[in-house]
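Q: Predict the assembly, please.
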Amino acid sequence: MCYNWACPVSISPSLRPAAADFGPALRVGIVGCGKIADAHAEVLTFLPGATLVAVCDREVLLAEQLAKRFAVPRYYTDAAEMLAAEKLDVVHITTPPAAHLPLTKQCVEAGANVFLEKPLTLTAPESVELIRAVEAAGKRLAMNYWPNFEPQMMEFKQRLAAGEFGEPVHIEASIGYDLGGAYGQALMSDPNHWVHRMPGKLFQNIMDHMFNRIVPFFPDGDPEVQAFGFKYRTEIRNDSTDALLDQLRVVLRSGRLSAYATLASQAQPVGNTLKLYGTRATVEVDFNLRTVVTTGSQRYPSSLGRLFPPFQQAMQYLRQGRKNVRAFRQHRFHFFAGMTELLTQYYAAIRSGGPLPISYAEMLSTARIMDEVNAQVYPQNNTPNATDGGAA
Amino acid sequence: MKILITGAGGFLGKRIVERLLAHGQTDLRCMVRDVAKAQGLRDLAARHNVEFEIVSVNMRNAAEIPAAISGCGLIIHAAAALKGSPAEMFMDSCVASRNLLDAVAAMQATSPVRVVQISSFGAIDVNSQPRGALLDERVPMEPHPEKRDLYSYTKLRQEQIFWEYQQRFRFELVVLRPGVIYGPGGGRFSNRVGLELFGRFMHLGGSNLLPLTFVDNCAEAIVVAALSPQAAGQIYNVVDDDLPTSREYLQRFSQQVQPMRAVPVPFFVLMAVSRAVERYYQRSKGQLPAIFTPYKTMAMWGGNRFTNAKLKAIGWKQLIPTNEGIARSFAWFRENPVAKK
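A: Predicted assembly structure:
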């Protein structure tokens, strides 16, 4: 069986070309200067072969602060004006998702490639329309699924491709969200926050990160989806924030393979893991610890089989820790290392016309699963037949 | 005259309301963003046996503001962001202020209004001054806010916006720049004292005088300036007298609140570390954030002092002596220990 992650496209940092090897630097702009734009600007500041030349936000004060803090030469309040003046090679769109479709169309028509924040759009049909627009303009698109390009995920993909874990039997993706944290408070204290207006509300803003880890294991079509959404918190504010569900459990199945996705907003610490149960070994990727740890078959008889495994696990963590220290010493252990890797691959694909780091089929499959989840957990807001977006 | 107080549910805002009541001002409209914070104001009204308006407004939404300021002759703008992502802080400090001022400008022709803005010492160009110098209100504004901490940047930009609008629309503007506002319900340590790093408290303030202002004293300064005719177009530093050094504050905290095992970091060591951190940030391509740079360190821990003479000249008197302010604060800290994470 070939699943998409068995054929990873990886550029080892040690093999990565120097800045001079890229030719002229790609001219990059950012549209949407909110919270996540900081991460993009931070990565672009040090990324070889690309220069952040302009930023844009309808709110001039937001555009100004991002430009000044990251020494970006120019800032705009009108995307059309920026596109006309700057002749950009790539635009990073970091606006709320409702604007993704019109802005993407505007960018590709102006000759720019597009790097989009998740989620792709608000619905799968919109996502299809977006990808068709990119293809019609002859441009290229990537989404910021940066955790899937973190060092530990690159290692996981390589070991998966090497057959170390055997055939996948079941997959679990788990992600947390701290509603009491700074970002959570921003949306919980504002009933007009754009998150409350999305079909899947909070889930739609973060469930990408679960499904985009699962989808590559279902290359032959969308899995069956059973979703359960509910509310753990008890406080009632008597505004639209009350409608927001904070717990999501999803079971997915296709053929012999099943998957389970957990989004928990109250559990501490905030988790972020991918676990694969394979026919040879079970492996867990922990995005917070940056570790890949397997649970292999027992090799010792009787009670010895219960005695040694903790030490075997400890040795794995030790080896992972050493690897991380080595990466840190070599300045390859940035917080957004995954975004650096993803952008490096994406920009290389733009230059060479080679394969994109994330296929459009995966993006659309993720979008359709999200539509299905929304229809099941928020049936009053989402029609059951809203998921008719076919692969581009 | 109806007085609007933005951020009225906050640490400083509630005290401003109290001081306004003490000055005989009872025609108040208290603006809060989160209705959950209004209960403290209702309690306050009940204690003083008065009634005032409480309005819930999200100042990010410009459309909500005109009705909220309508009929007010004085606006005391105490709402600001203290933490959050850069975009959140700019939205809540700068965009919110700009939205407020747009509404003020629209109202100015028919209904003149005086505006009082609460700025910060963070807006001042302390690095242009000799280390340890006594600074008054004539020191220019920071020319490189992007090199400072985020809070200072937002407060500086906020004050700039107020002066820009004042120049364009000619309303009466009074700006107050408090130092470190402290008191029961407030924070335990300003960054000027030190920071917790890797589970240890690093004492960075050494023998610097802490530019403290007890929250009631600060609120009194705001109200005195807000009601003083001669304050129009003026800037006032807000800082108390008889200030402790950072070391004295920390020692007293250790004795009266909870023992602190702080690691003292002399200024020259801190500067050397800051240079190293800045170099590492560049060499490692941002692997660790440049939380210390020589520029930030000089501004935060350079030991500048601030005079309050101009504030006293319009009649401000320190209500609560510093010793008592610290004692009240420490008593509250003892009764409300920080929950361990």
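DSSP finds 13 helices and 13 strands in chain A. Residues 188 and 241 of chain A are 6 Å apart (CA to CA).
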